[in-house]
Design brief:
The complex is a heterodimer. By secondary structure, chain A is of the alpha/beta class. Chain A contains eleven helices and ten strands. In chain A, strand 7 and strand 8 form a beta hairpin. In chain A, helix 2 crosses helix 3 and helix 6 crosses helix 8. The longest helix of chain A is centred in the last third of the chain and has 26 residues. The two termini of chain A are 32 Å apart. Chain B is 31% helix and 28% strand. Chain B is globular, with a radius of gyration of 14 Å. Classes of the chains: A alpha/beta, B alpha/beta.
């Protein structure tokens, strides 16, 4: 079964071809191909940028996978959550293809798509398992029951973890996206040089908060502009990951966890990968983290999850709509 | 444009200020349509919005930063409230490209726009709220509005 995926929920225009739900025949991400094509950074947040990119990533992907529309058994498209005007570009493109080729259409939740990125492989985690979704827009700890059912254990009450990386990077005069920049800078800094606060909630919630940490780091930087930026970055990064570990530990006190999945853009962070690998080893947990390419927003995860939904007999009509909010 | 200054000395006070602005909007329908929120990172813009939306019975935990997603819609019985964040947008084309004017001009809707100064938008029913960082806790907040709105705000906030 060949399913194509289309993803335009935020910054990237992405198109993928996936066979049988896990074999990636093509996975084109605009920021990785088009920027280099034009030799510069093209702002892509605007829906008009998605409009410019979408035919290009589609044609490139179809060519790379060596298929035509006749070979396609299903079309999966992100329809929530995201910026409506951006989602609509992908959605309408998908509808056009579905109509022209009489191909089944399925709408996919972007957040569940991230979780699926660990299933784009033969060694996928067995349900149920515990999952972290960590990105610029999400900080979710959840129990994953199946491809479409997750039980949220904790979520952010203010900023997402990836957002804290981005904002701190920009504030210290570095660029965007901040994740890779802070990651690299931290390697030459001392993670224990500055003690930043960890959030505490009065209730016993396993929620997260990154706004307080962000503000504390910025305050520190405002007051101590001469401190090594590498030390600030490393100390912030350590605290940001500690916050995740603290909640995971608290969850482990009550529940048995044998499989842990980490997905979303922040799962590309090398310190997180190292820390979580050690933690999992010490706690007899089998850890699943996707390859770097599948950590960030991509259409392969959308095509993969779409395949499973179509296999279950689910299908959408051409009336499928886009929604800004999905899972909190 | 008239302006006045006030000071909040905790996150909670900034939250309360947002709440009071929502009460003011509710007591004078149609008076204010947009809040242009300006101020550096960590100055309390999102906290202000949390306070504002708490008056419409949205939970603190429901109002999270819209930086990544740019725009979140909150539906109440009689209007949409948009929580918008232009932090990641730069050019006027990008800002227009998200369809922002459709939201700003939607009937009955209220928009709260973080990094709203990036939007070159003048309207008689806009209120500008500027947040200034003094230290960890203190924030100087300047409220700017057209005369008619200003009088009402001044009266309500000084009580």
């Amino acid at each position: 079964m060949i399913v194509i995926g289309i993803e335009t929920s935020c910054d990237d225009t992405s198109f993928a071809v996936v066979e049988d739900g896990y074999k990636i025949r093509a996975n084109i991400i605009s920021s990785q191909t088009i920027h280099s094509k034009y030799g510069g950074v093209v702002p892509e947040l605007a829906s008009r940028e998605h409009i410019k990119n979408i035919s290009y990533v589609f044609e490139k992907g179809m060519k790379a996978a060596k298929i035509t529309l006749k070979d396609v058994d299903g079309i999966a498209v992100t329809n929530r959550p995201g910026l409506i005007v951006s989602l609509l570009v992908g959605l309408n493109f998908a509808k056009g293809l579905a109509y022209a080729g009489r191909i089944p259409l399925i709408g996919v939740n972007h957040t569940l798509g991230h979780i699926y990125s660990n299933h784009l492989s033969k060694s996928e985690p067995e349900f149920p398992y515990i999952g972290f979704i960590l990105s610029g827009g999400h900080t979710i700890l959840c129990k994953v029951h199946n491809y479409t059912t997750i039980e949220v254990i904790g979520t952010t009450r203010d900023d997402a973890i990836g957002e804290a990386f981005d904002k701190i990077s920009k504030f210290m005069g570095f660029g965007y996206p901040g994740g890779p920049i802070i990651d690299k800078l931290s390697k030459s800094g001392n993670p224990n040089s500055i003690k930043f606060p960890r959030p505490r909630f009065k209730d016993k919630s396993l929620d997260f908060s990154y706004s307080g940490l962000k503000t504390a780091v910025l305050n520190y930087y405002r007051k101590n502009p001469d401190t090594s930026k590498a030390d600030i970055a490393a100390s912030f990064q350590k605290t940001a990951i500690d916050i995740l570990i603290i909640n995971l530990k608290r969850y482990l006190e009550k529940e048995n966890v044998s499989r842990l999945s980490i997905t979303g853009g922040v799962s590309a962070n090398s310190y997180l990968r190292k820390t979580m690998t050690e933690f999992s080893k010490n706690n007899n947990i089998k850890l699943f983290i996707p390859s770097h390419e599948l950590c960030t927003d991509n259409a392969a995860m959308i095509a993969g999850l779409g395949t499973r939904l179509l296999e279950e007999g689910k299908k959408d009509t051409l009336k499928l709509d886009a929604y800004s909010r999905g899972i909190k | 444009m008239k302006k006045f200054k006030l000071r909040t000395s905790s996150e909670d006070e900034t939250f309360q200020l947002g709440f009071r602005f929502a009460e003011l909007v509710n007591s004078s329908p149609g008076l204010v349509k947009n809040f242009i929120l300006t101020g550096d990172l960590g100055c309390g813009k999102t906290i202000f919005v949390k306070g504002f939306l708490s008056s419409f019975e949205f939970l603190k935990s429901e109002v999270t930063s819209p930086t990544f997603i740019i725009l979140k819609r909150f539906e109440t019985a009689d209007r949409n409230i948009y929580h918008i964040d232009l932090y990641r947008l730069n050019s006027p084309g990008e800002i227009e490209g998200i369809g922002i004017y459709d939201f700003l001009e939607e009937d009955n809707a209220i928009s709260l726009i973080e990094w709203g100064e990036k939007l070159n938008y003048n309207s008689d029913n806009s209120v500008k709220v500027v947040f200034n960082w003094i230290d960890e806790e203190l924030r100087d907040i300047t409220v700017e509005a057209e005369n008619d709105i200003f009088k009402i705000i001044e009266k309500r906030l000084s009580t």
